[in-house]
Amino acid sequence: MHILERIPQESARDFAFRVLKENIVSLELKPGTLISENEMAMELGVSRTPVREAIIDLSKVSIIETVPQRGSFVAYIDPKMVEESRFLRKVLDKAVIEVACDIASKEYIDALEENVHLQEFYLEKSDTEKIFTLDNLFHELIYSAAQKDIIYDMRSTMMLHFDRVRTLSVEAVKDLKIVNDHRSMLEAIKSHDKEAAVALVEKHLNRYSFDEDRIREEFPEYFK
Amino acid sequence: MHILERIPQESARDFAFRVLKENIVSLELKPGTLISENEMAMELGVSRTPVREAIIDLSKVSIIETVPQRGSFVAYIDPKMVEESRFLRKVLDKAVIEVACDIASKEYIDALEENVHLQEFYLEKSDTEKIFTLDNLFHELIYSAAQKDIIYDMRSTMMLHFDRVRTLSVEAVKDLKIVNDHRSMLEAIKSHDKEAAVALVEKHLNRYSFDEDRIREEFPEYFK
DNA sequence: TCTAGTCTACTTGTATACTAGTGTATCTAT
DNA sequence: ATAGATACACTAGTATACAAGTAGACTAGA
Asked: Which of B1, B94, B147, B173 has its CA 20 to 30 A from that of A219?
């Protein structure tokens, strides 16, 4: 497992949660791996309690499976769960951007404006890493603008299923297209054009295809 | 706090979670109340650990607010959160019933059929309690039929915000209408009529109105 | 009367100890 | 050699102990 740096003042629980999440999505922790609370506590330099609490959180969305008295395992890739997370994202993103079109305040519009501007800036420099971070922030901002913050949290945790298969997809989505999508979405929000916004989200999400058959063939050991 | 009976083989954590949930929704635990992990552990006859884990869960959706080194408090009714939960339900219920129209298996159709039949049975007997339980099960069955079980869990926890103001609403929704709605939804699912199903959900949810001003006037101490 | 300080009684966060169950490897008996 | 019993090493669930911080009551002094 790849141990991240602990952020100052970060609680042990949040730390453990963050490390677990990263390692699962990046497939550093392979599906089927046993996560020992004890071992992980040692590695992180914290006690079992916060590690355990983080594991419980992730069990909630079935990305970790806990069998009493046996262990906690990284869940195998389950197409049903991938579909469930993709479904959740599509449904929520569309509904939320509509609300954002209605009620986004100038404050958030400005934040989105800056965000997209930076995306375009780093697109110029081909800094995919930065764009990835800004991408996530962009969507979070929309949820905030629509005052749907708790829902965003749920979406994030659930998206782990999808993020993890995205790690396996060779076919990288072109940054150019993504950034363009975001620019268009922002313009739609600014002009309160709900219909356009929803259509853009639909198109945006369709860029992330999930070729289950290919991935299953290439990484059969990751599937149940 | 009203202590429920512990179900055999129920884990201490699930038990604590269930008791907390019930007491918060029923307003037995009033908004603003301090929930002491220690005290609750004593009352339930378990240790702090499972109680704490239950509290963490509920903090996730902001129905409990935990301030480090100060305490965990039952959150005041926050119209923003009520709206967020109502929004989540509306968006998900509509999207999920569409899926159910597409893929509900005979097994689930049968289960729904039995469920609605029982609702009609208890409607005859005016057993509101039973209908309430069957009502919840009905919606859970639809989510299961659409293979969206994790999403249903999220919805449930988030709905606590809404369920709690529903407790305060005097205007009881008529059982007759509810049961009729359910019957119609089932028929829509059986005939794969997505449009009708979505329209029914919309109508169904509109029955649950939330007169914030009135409730706020009547119970000002429950609001922040 | 007011203010500064201190003490107490609480809280959560974290660490550790104990319990009970599971799977495996090993040993024993046939 | 094989089947069954058994010991062991691990697990998660729960209980308890300790650390660190907060709020409020109380006291002493001006």
From this structure: B147
